[in-house]
Amino acid sequence: MSIDPAPDALLPHGGRLRQAADRYHIPLADWLDLSTGINPVGWALSDPTLPPTIADLWSRLPEDDDGLEQAAARYYGTPALLPVAGSQAAIQALPRLRPPGRVGIIAPGYGEHAHAWTRAGHQVRPLSGAAIETALPDLDVLVLIHPNNPTGARFPRADLLRWHGALAGRGGWLVVDEAFMDATPKQSLADLGPRPGLILLRSIGKFFGLAGARVGFVLADATITRPLAALLGPWTIAAPSRWVAAQALADTAWQDATRERLAADGERLAELLRRHGLPPQGGCALFQWVPTGRAPQIHEALASAGILTRLFDSPPALRFGLPGSEGEWARLEAAL
After folding, report:
1. Is there a domain that residue 52 lies in?
2. Phi, psi dihedrals of residue 8, rounded to the nearest 5°
3. CA 120 to centroid of chain Cα atoms
4. Rounded to whole angstroms, how far apart are CA atoms 323 and 328?
5. By the 8 A CB rule, do 73 and 226 touch?
6. What are 251-295's pLDDT values in tens digits?
7. Which residues on adjacent β-strands are paired with residue 317?
8. Domain co-membership, 221 together with 136
9. Residues whose CB is less than 8 angstroms from the CB of residue 1 and which lie 6 or more positions away in sequence, other chains included
């Protein structure tokens, strides 16, 4: 994915259903959105009757002793964390904590990383996975997405540790965006923290299906989280979002069942795409990545049928998220 030449422009993302509805003249309620990689069967309260106190949360300022940090510490296995308004907030703020330097960023990848470091005055270098080792001596910061978005590529733990050691030894950072890691938590680096120069970004938006809550976490030592908290200011997450996130992070039974279901659904999606001549070249439990020169045409044809995918231009590719219901699976197969 190329570096955005206009630092102040907003980058395209999945999930722009209202724009799609206007463009294709299909009512909003009639769309099947496969563009985001969000779990379509997200966490929800098993008891539809909310506690009486939940109504009070809308009228109070958020409080940092409401149990969210403790629930997150148990879930991620480390107390060295900072809640933020989605990992996007950290992506935009972290580059402002360092003087301008040389930053390597995995490409193709989630474009907001390169966008944020470029805006903060850093020299950004897009890197393939194979080029990281050679480029590392010239970098101050290495930014990876693990598993990568959109390719699903993963990195051996030994390589990640070696790269972190080389960077940290000269005051550098290894930033690892683990937004899609919850389905395979044993591959996370969270158990290593806190370590100087190691920064992990997590979110409840994808696996838990709670993107609208805007809750994420920065896992890092205090030399990172303290200035980051000061930069972001107080009350970064609304009180109701903090409450919902704490409940979801504590629901281990739902998490275990969801990991099993997502693994099966991810393979089901890959097989469906293969049957229709679109073999994925990467992916994870929540999405499949299909590079193809026909990506624009396929994207357009599916959109005309009310199915939204995520289109990439460099290289031409489509990212397919998971359908939720059996009716949605049948609809995707019929459209393909």
Report:
1. no
2. -95, 0
3. 21
4. 5
5. no
6. 999 999 999 999 999 999 999 999 999 999 999 999 999 999 999
7. 291, 312
8. yes
9. 107, 108, 109, 111, 114, 126, 312, 314
